[in-house]
Write a structure and sequence with these properties.
3-stranded antiparallel beta sheet, 11 strands, two-stranded antiparallel ribbon, alpha+beta
């Protein structure tokens, strides 16, 4: 595809390869990764494309609505019929955006991990309430490591409700905290701190 570009030498034709034309769709027709492999670089400060050296400018760009445009003159653009005929092989798999996408088929265990480890009942509600998701596999309880560890914390921390203290120091909690790295000491020689709660 030939593109008319404004350069320091005037209007020149740039030949673009590996390009697909989609009518009415503004997209990046110049991939910066592909340009970089050809030693073509983009300077957003000066709005130019240059080759190898910043002084070797190959195209001056125009900033418009968040995009850098290469077109020098809309009247010099090739007609749509030329673009359609020369690039017709790229349009064979065209599907309008309003066509429904196929369902994503997801195993129940994978869905459990993808959606942040919800319970079995929540996973069962995905298929009827989420468009485009089809669940496979059997209904089994989760045995993943994350859920096991989360359940352990809940089980360990469950304690019977304790009666309120009737007098001072009825019940106290003491934590001994190692406050410095091994082999060091504080100014007064301390290595531990004690935290007590009545």
């Amino acid at each position: 595809m030939d593109l008319v570009a404004r350069t320091q030498q005037g209007l020149l034709l740039l030949k673009l390869t590996h390009v697909a034309y989609v009518e009415g769709f503004l997209t990046s027709i110049l991939g910066l990764a592909r340009c970089r492999s050809e030693s073509i670089h983009f300077d957003s400060g000066r709005d130019v494309l240059y080759m190898q050296e910043p002084t070797n400018i190959i195209a001056q760009l125009k900033y418009n609505g968040g995009h850098w445009l290469i077109d020098a003159d809309p009247s010099r653009r090739p007609p749509l019929s030329v673009l359609r005929s020369s690039l017709s092989t790229f349009g064979t798999s065209y599907r309008p955006s309003y066509a429904p996408k196929p369902d994503n088929i997801v195993d129940r265990r994978a869905a459990h991990q993808i959606w942040g480890h919800p319970g079995r009942k929540a996973v069962d509600q995905l298929e009827p309430n989420v468009i485009g998701v089809q669940l496979t596999g059997d209904h089994m309880d989760c045995l993943c490591q994350t859920c096991i560890e989360a359940r352990m914390a809940h089980i360990v921390s469950r304690r019977p409700s304790e009666s309120r203290a009737q007098e001072p120091f009825y019940r106290i909690a003491i934590d001994i905290i190692y406050i410095i790295p091994v082999g060091d000491e504080c100014i007064d020689g301390s290595k531990y701190a004690i935290h007590a709660v009545d």
